[in-house]
Amino acid sequence: MGTLSCCLLLALALLGPRAAAARKCDLQGLWRNELGSNMTLSALDAAGTFSGSYHTAVAVTNKQILVSPLQGAQQHPGAKGQPTFGFTVQWQFAASSITAFVGQCFVDRRGKETLETMWLLREEVPSRRDAWKATR
User: Nearest-CA neighbor of 111 among 71, 72, 90, 82?
Assistant: First the structure.
């Protein structure tokens, strides 16, 4: 995760044709980024929350990279076509760290959905004195 740039551009994998006229982002489905990471998001519930899984292709570890659970929320589901959202990933191969993502979903004129996100990874440190080096 250390070599991953601060902005992830996630593009929707081909899940079937979508009406370009609607131009409304739907977070549900399989998403892949330019580095090979992918995530699968469930449908939003009535409150705008969702769950899913994240499989990173980029990590600073010798451990086997495992698919990790995520939990998130979309702001005002159904209100606008290009919603903001956030989610956290609880890494299964790095028990002492968690990553929070925030972003927005955009739809271009052709109907292609793209997620623009930023992330912060927090690692556990032994003391408060070491807190300054715990966040990337």
Answer: 82
What CATH number does the domain containing 115 carry? 2.40.128.30
Identity of the residue numbered 59: A
Taking the CA atoms of residue 122, residue 124, residue 129 and residue 135 in that order, the dihedral angle to the nearest 10 degrees is -10
Q: Does the residue 41 lie in any domain?
A: yes
Q: Please tell me the total count of domains within the chain.
A: 1
Enter the pTM of the model: 0.77
Q: Tell me how far apart the alpha carbons of residues 22 and 130 are, in angstroms, rounded to a whole number.
A: 49
Domain that holds residue 105: 24-133
CA angle 110, 46, 8 (to 5 degrees): 45
DSSP secondary structure string for all residues of 60-81: S-SSPP--EEEEEEESSTTT-S
Within-domain flag for 15: no
> Which pLDDT tens digit goes with each residue over 26-84?
899 999 999 999 999 999 999 999 999 999 988 777 788 889 999 999 987 566 678 99
Is residue 120, in this structure, part of any structural domain at all? yes
Contact between 126 and 134 under an 8 Å Cβ cutoff? The reply is no
